[in-house]
C-alpha cells in the first residue's frame, strides 16, 4: 500500500534539501521550548511521515528516511508508516542504533546535517556536533579541512510545508499569592539568590512552565498545558519577557510591571541575546532547557559573554509545591475524583444493563471520553483536560498510549477490561488518574493480574524512606509482584506532575534505570508524583492503576486514620537517620473490587486498600447523589 | 606529649624533600596495584605519621603536615597523631578541604608536588595534575613559563625509611580447569575478543585479582587476599607476567608457559612499557585499575603508542562465576557453615552456662575469634581468613568496622548481642558471613530490631527481577522495614565477592546511591553478592545479618523445595519481559531464633525463614555430632 501523500511531501523536502546543499535533515518532536506537546505549527515530523505519536525523530536523506520512536508507539508507528518507505527504528531495542549512531555510521565527510536549532535542546545539538566530529575523525580530517562535515541550522519545513498552521496566540491570565502561597517577588528573590551563588548576571528561560511558575502566569498556547509561548531573561533588577503582546491584557501587563517585568516581542530574543553576547555578562543556561540556537547566539569565538551551564534553579523549586499549592491540589483531586467516580457508577450501571449484555446497547470509547469530559466540566474551576484521554477497551488497553480517534474508536466490550487514563486542569490544580474496570465478569487470570498491579500501586504509595532516596530505589515496590509472574511494563512507574501546569514535570521520577544510567533527583517535600504500574497483554487487554501522591515528611502522613509517628526511641533514631518521607495519595477514586482476587493479597495489602477506600468514601460521598452514594459505600467497603 | 619518633622521621623526610627540590610530598594508602589491603612495605604513611587505620593520606611540607581520614577513624587518628604536629583532616566533614583543594590553596607557582606514582591510580594522578594547572592558572602562568608548578614522581620513603620491610614473596600455586570450569586459554580467548572489539593490541593488567583470575594463579602476598604481587601485559599471542621469579616454581612456570606466558622481573614493567610506548601499539588500560606511573610511561608528547581507557574486560568476567565455580562456592559455604554453626552451638552452651551467667566464666572477643579460626582450620581446604574477623560484644557491635585487638579486646557480655562478621578462604572458595546472637535474654526492643534486620535480609534474598536491574533498585527491600522505624545503616547492603579471591569485588553492589550518582552494574548470572543489612545503636549494640547470594536465572532457583517456574502463560510473559533472575543464598548458618519477634513478621517473611532454616539443617546436620544436631534441629525448626 503506497502512501502517495507522504511520498510527495518527502520528495518536495528532498528538493529543498538539495537546493540548500543539505544531505541529512532531522525533524524532532519539539517546539522552541522543549514542550512535551507541540502546537500544530511544530508538527512537521507528523506532516512529513504520517506518524502522529507524541515522540519521534524523523531523519530524511537523499534516498531514504527513518523514524525513531519508543516502545509505546511501535505498533502504531508500524501501521502509520506503511507505504511511506520510512524505516521504523525501535528505540532502545537491541541492535537498533540511536539517531546519532546512525548518522555517525551513514554520513560521509563533507556532508551537511541540518535541523531547526530552535527545536533542538543545547545538549542534543552538541551531541550532533560530536557526530560530525567523529565522522571527520574517522576520515582523519582536521579542523582546517574544507571537506569537513558541517551543521546548518534551518527550518526547511518553512518553505515546503504549504498551509502550515500559525503559531498559537491565546490570552494569558495570572494567579495570585493566595493561589500559590508565594508572590512573583518572592519567587524572583529565590531565583536570583541561586543566580548569585553561581556568579551569574542573567538567567535565560525558555521552558514555558518555568516562566509560568516564576511569573504566576498561565496561558493556553500548548494543548493541555496552561502556558503561553514566551521566553524570559531574568536580570538583576528586571525580567525581559518575550511574548506576543496581543495575548497580554493591560491589567496583566500592569501587575507584572510592578515586579520589574518588561514586555518584548516574542521573536526578538535571538537578536537581543546576540547583541548581549558581546557584553561582559555571565548567563546562566540550562543545557536541557534552552535550545541549541540560543546557545549558539551566546557562545562562540570572540564573544565577550560567559555562560554557566547548570540545571535551571526553577526546576527544583517548581517541583516542590508550597503548602498552599498542595492543599489546592487536594481540592482539585476531590473535584476530579467526584467526576471520575460518577463515571465509574455509570459504567457500573452500563455493565449490568441487560441491553448492554445482549449487545443491543452500544457505547463507544469516544462516548465514554465525552461523558467524562462533561462530568469534569461540571467541576468547579475546570479549565481543560490535562492530556488527551486514553479510553481503551479490551485489546486497545494493551497499546500503552492508545488514544481513541474517529478511526480507532471502538465499542466498549463486555466482560473485558476498560482502561481509562485521563486528567483535568482545574484552577486549583492538575490531575492525572488511571482506572481500569471490568465490564462484566473478570476471569481468574484477569483478577490475578489486576490484583498484582493493585498491590504494586499500594505498596509504592506506602513507602517510608529517608532523605537521599530516588525513584530508582522505590520502583521495585511497584513492580516486584509482576516480576514474580514473569511480567513487567515498558514505562516508568511515576512522573512528576505540575501545579496547574504540565502533567509531566521533572526532575524526579520513578523508574528502574534512571536518566542515562544516573539516579534521578531525590524525593523532597512537596513533590507530586504519579504511581502507575500496569500490565499489557498484546491483543488482549491492558491494566493500569494510577494515583497521584505528594511527598511529605513522614510525621505529616496519616496512616489508618491517625498521624504517622515514630514512637518512643524511634523518634531519636529518625533524627539521626532522617528526615524520613512518605507519600500521601491525593487521587480519590475507588478501585474496581470485582477485579480483585483477595487471596493473592497479603494482609498488609488488604489493610492498605481498605484504608484508601475508606478515605475515598469520606471525601467523595458528600458530592454524590443518594444512588451513587449507596453504590460507593459498597464499592469502598472493607475487603 | 611530644612524639619524638614521628618528629624525627618527618625531619629526615623534609631533608630528603629539600635535597630533591620537593615542596609537598603525598603518601597515600595503597600498593602498586590498588589493593584493598597493603603489605608492610607499603605502610609509609603509618611509618611517618603513626596512624595505622586502613584509610588515610598524609601530606608533608616544609613546615607542616596533615592527615586525611574518614569517619571510621576520627577518634583513633586523633589519638595516634597526638604530639606529631600533624593536623587531622576529617574527610567529608563540612568545611574540611580535600587533599586536592588543600593543595590548590596552599601551593605556589613554581613549587613541586611529589608522590610515588606507582601507588596513585591514574584518575587521581590526573586530578593532582589539575591542581597544579589550577595553581598556575590562578597566577596567570602559561605552559611555557619556567616557574610552572610541577609534579615529580618519586618514592621518598625509599631512602628515609630505614629498615623498611621487604616486599612480600610467597609461593604461588595454580588452579586447574577442574576448579574453575575454564582454562587459561579459554579465558585469554575471551579477553582477547574484548581487546579486538576495541581495537587494542595489548592489555595492561595491574590489579592482582584480575591477573589471578586470568591465569588461574593464586598466591599469598596480600593479607586475606590469595594473590601474588605481579603485573601482566596481555598481547595477541602471549602474556608478559612481571613477577618475582623466586615465588614461581618450575612446575607453575612450565604449565603457564604452555599458554604463552613469559616471565619477567617484577619491576621491569615500567621500563618495558616505556620502550613499547614508542611503537605503534594500542594499549587498553582501565583508569580505575592502573597507576599514574603506568599511564605516564604510555602517554605523553611524541609517544607513538595509543591508549584506550575503558573498564577492564576482566572486571565483569571475573564477577560472573562459572557453573563450576558456583558449585565449588556452595561446597565452601557448607564447610564454612559447619564451622560457624559449631561456634554458634558453643555460644549457645556458653550463654546457658551458670558460670557465664554469674560472671565467673569469662570469654573474650579474641578468644571467640580464635575458636572460630580453629573450627575453620579444621575445614577441608582452609587457607586463610578472608578478612580480619569482627567479633564485637554489646556496644562494640555499633562500631561498624570494629576489630578486636589486644587493647580493645572485651569480655563477651551476657544478655547482650554478639556480632560476628568473619570469613574464610578455602580451596573451594571465599566466604563472608555475619551472625548476631543474643548471649542471654533479648529485650522487646532488641527483638524488634533484630527481626527488622532479618526481614530485610530475607526479602532482598527473595527478589525476582528482570535483566537490567541494579543494586540500587533492590536495596530498598533490605532497608524498608528499618526505615519504617526511623532507622537505617550507613553502609551498603551488599558487595560482590570473588571466587577464591578478594572478599570485596566489583562491579556490582547493592546500595542506595550507586557510584557517584550512577546506577552500578546490573545483575548477571553467576554474580556472588553479600546481603547484609544492620542496625547500630551507638554505645549500645549492633545487629548485622549477612548471607552470600549467587545470582541465577529464575528458573534455576529452588523455592520451597521445588524449582521456581513461571507456569502456564507466565512462561510466555517471562520470555517477553525477561530473562528474570533471582538469588540463591549459599551461606548455610541458622539465624538466632531467640532474638526474633514472630509477631512483627509477615506470613511471607516467616515462610522464607522456615524455608532457609530447613535447607540449613539439611546441608549442615550431616557434618555435626549428635548433640549439635539435636540443637540445630531445634534452632532450625519452623517458626
Average pLDDT for all residues of chain A: 95
Q: Please report the two chains with the greatest interface, counting residues with C-beta closer than 8 angstroms to the partner's C-beta.
A: A-B, 42 and 42 residues
Low-confidence stretches of chain A: none
Largest sheet entry of chain A: 6 strands, mixed
CATH topology group of the largest domain in chain A:
Creatine Amidinohydrolase
What's the architecture of the largest domain in chain A, going by CATH? Answer: Alpha-Beta Complex
Q: Widest sheet of chain A: strand order?
A: 4-3-2-1-5-6
The CATH homologous superfamily name of the largest domain in chain A equals Creatinase/methionine aminopeptidase superfamily
The whole-angstrom Rg of chain A is: 26 Å
What is the number of strand segments of chain A? 30
Shape of chain A: globular
The overall number of domains of chain A is: 3
Please give the share of residues in helix of chain A.
25-40%
CATH top level label of the largest domain in chain A? Alpha Beta
Distance between the termini of chain A: 54 Å
**How many helices of chain A does DSSP assign?**
21
The quaternary structure here is: homodimer
Strand content of chain A: 15-25%
Describe this structure in words.
2 copies of one chain form a homodimer. Chain A is of the alpha+beta class and 639 residues long. Chain A has 3 domains: 4-160, Creatine Amidinohydrolase, Chain A, domain 1 (3-Layer(aba) Sandwich), CATH 3.40.350; 173-312, 3-Layer(aba) Sandwich (Creatine Amidinohydrolase, Chain A, domain 1), CATH 3.40.350.10; 323-635, Creatine Amidinohydrolase (Alpha-Beta Complex). Chain A has a 6-stranded mixed β-sheet, sandwiched between helices. Chain A has a 6-stranded mixed β-sheet with strand order 12-11-10-8-13-14. A 4-stranded antiparallel β-sheet of chain A has the order 21-30-27-24. In chain A, helix 11 runs parallel beside helix 12 (292-298) and helix 17 (444-461) runs antiparallel to helix 18. The N and C termini of chain A lie far apart (54 Å). The mean pLDDT of chain A is 95. The interface between A and B is large, with 42 and 42 residues.
Amino acid at each position: 500500500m503506497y502512501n502517495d501523500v507522504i511520498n510527495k511531501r518527502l520528495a518536495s523536502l528532498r528538493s529543498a534539501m538539495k537546493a540548500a546543499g543539505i544531505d541529512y535533515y532531522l525533524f524532532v518532536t519539539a517546539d522552541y521550548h522543549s514542550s512535551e506537546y507541540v502546537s500544530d505549527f511544530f508538527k512537521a515530523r507528523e506532516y512529513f511521515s504520517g506518524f502522529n505519536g507524541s515522540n519521534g525523530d524523523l531523519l530524511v536523506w537523499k534516498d531514504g528516511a527513518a523514524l525513531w520512536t519508543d516502545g509505546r508507539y511501535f505498533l502504531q508507528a508500524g501501521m502509520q508508516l506503511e507505504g511511506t518507505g520510512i524505516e521504523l527504528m525501535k528505540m532502545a531495542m537491541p541492535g537498533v542504533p540511536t539517531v546519532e549512531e546512525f548518522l555517525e555510521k551513514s554520513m560521509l565527510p563533507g556532508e551537511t546535517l541540518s535541523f531547526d536549532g530552535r527545536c533542538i535542546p543545547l545538549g542534543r545539538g552538541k551531541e550532533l556536533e560530536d557526530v560530525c566530529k567523529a565522522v571527520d575523525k574517522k576520515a582523519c580530517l582536521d579542523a582546517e579541512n574544507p571537506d569537513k562535515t558541517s551543521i546548518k541550522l534551518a527550518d526547511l519545513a518553512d518553505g515546503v510545508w504549504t498551509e502550515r498552521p500559525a503559531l498559537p496566540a491565546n490570552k494569558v491570565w495570572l494567579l495570585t499569592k493566595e493561589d500559590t502561597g508565594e508572590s512573583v517577588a518572592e519567587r524572583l528573590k529565590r531565583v536570583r539568590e541561586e543566580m548569585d551563588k553561581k556568579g551569574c548576571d542573567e538567567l535565560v528561560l525558555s521552558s514555558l512552565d518555568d516562566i509560568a511558575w516564576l511569573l504566576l502566569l498561565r496561558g493556553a498556547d500548548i494543548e493541555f498545558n496552561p502556558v503561553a509561548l514566551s521566553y524570559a531573561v531574568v536580570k538583576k533588577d528586571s525580567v525581559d519577557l518575550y511574548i506576543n503582546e496581543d495575548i497580554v491584557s493591560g491589567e496583566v501587563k500592569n501587575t507584572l510591571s510592578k515586579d520589574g517585568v518588561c514586555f518584548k516581542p516574542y521573536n526578538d530574543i535571538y537578536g537581543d541575546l546576540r547583541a548581549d553576547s558581546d557584553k561582559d555578562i555571565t548567563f546562566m543556561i540550562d543545557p536541557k532547557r534552552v535550545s541549541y540556537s540560543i546557545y549558539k547566539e551566546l557562545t562562540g569565538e570572540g564573544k565577550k559573554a560567559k555562560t554557566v551551564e547548570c540545571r535551571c534553579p526553577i526546576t527544583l523549586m517548581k517541583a516542590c509545591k508550597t503548602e498552599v499549592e498542595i492543599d489546592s491540589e487536594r481540592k482539585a483531586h476531590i473535584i476530579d475524583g467526584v467526576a471520575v467516580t460518577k463515571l465509574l457508577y455509570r459504567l457500573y450501571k452500563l455493565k449490568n444493563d441487560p441491553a448492554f449484555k445482549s449487545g443491543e446497547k452500544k457505547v463507544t470509547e469516544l462516548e465514554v471520553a465525552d461523558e467524562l469530559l462533561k462530568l469534569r466540566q461540571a467541576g468547579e474551576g475546570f479549565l481543560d483536560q490535562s492530556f488527551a484521554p486514553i479510553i481503551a477497551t479490551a485489546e486497545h488497553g494493551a497499546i500503552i498510549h492508545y488514544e481513541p480517534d474517529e478511526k480507532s474508536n471502538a465499542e466498549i466490550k463486555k466482560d473485558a477490561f476498560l482502561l481509562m487514563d485521563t486528567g483535568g486542569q482545574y484552577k486549583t490544580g492538575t490531575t492525572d488518574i488511571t482506572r481500569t474496570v471490568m465490564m462484566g465478569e473478570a476471569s481468574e487470570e484477569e483478577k490475578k493480574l489486576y490484583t498484582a498491579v493493585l498491590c504494586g500501586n499500594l505498596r509504592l504509595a506506602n513507602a517510608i524512606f529517608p532523605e537521599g532516596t530516588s525513584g530508582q530505589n522505590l520502583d521495585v515496590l511497584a513492580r516486584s509482584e509482576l516480576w514474580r509472574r514473569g511480567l513487567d511494563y515498558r514505562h516508568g512507574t511515576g512522573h512528576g506532575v505540575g501545579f496547574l501546569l504540565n502533567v509531566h514535570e521533572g526532575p524526579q521520577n520513578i523508574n528502574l534505570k534512571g536518566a542515562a544510567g544516573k539516579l534521578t533527583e531525590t524525593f523532597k517535600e512537596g513533590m507530586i508524583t504519579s504511581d502507575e504500574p500496569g500490565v499489557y497483554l498484546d491483543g488482549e487487554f491492558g491494566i493500569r492503576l494510577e494515583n497521584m501522591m505528594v511527598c511529605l515528611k513522614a510525621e505529616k502522613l496519616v496512616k489508618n486514620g491517625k498521624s504517622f509517628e515514630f514512637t518512643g526511641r524511634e523518634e531519636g533514631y529518625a533524627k539521626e537517620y532522617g528526615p524520613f518521607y512518605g507519600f500521601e495519595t491525593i487521587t480519590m477514586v475507588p478501585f474496581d473490587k470485582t477485579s480483585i482476587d483477595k487471596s493473592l493479597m497479603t494482609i498488609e495489602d488488604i489493610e492498605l486498600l481498605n484504608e484508601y477506600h475508606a478515605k475515598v468514601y469520606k471525601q467523595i460521598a458528600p458530592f454524590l447523589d443518594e444512588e451513587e452514594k449507596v453504590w460507593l459505600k459498597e464499592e469502598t467497603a472493607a475487603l
